[in-house]
Amino acid sequence: MEVWDIYNENREKTKRTHIRGEEMQEGDFHQVIHVWIMNASGQFLIQRRQPWKKGWANMWDCSAAGSALAEETSEMAAIREVKEELGIDIEMSTSEILFTIKFERGFDDHFL
Fold this sequence. Notes:
By secondary structure, the chain is mainly β. It is 12% helix and 38% strand. The longest helix is centred in the last third of the chain and has 13 residues, at 74-86.
């Protein structure tokens, strides 16, 4: 069971949490990350989404992505997701947030 922190529309953490799979309340947001891994030659590591995934099944995607768990920062979530999905330990000191997208139910930080 995944538990997420709930944020308000200004990305301020509330004192509430959400269980993944349940319907989110109007005005609730959660934190999502996408990690783009690039080598010294400028090539990106990409992966194909699982065929059973909801949304964009079998499509090519960034190196790793997912939702931040309760009490995680977006950087902590990026480290965990890359380790879980790719088995790679990443060093965030050489990373940067390229941009953040505010979407209907969350904030999505894109790391390079």
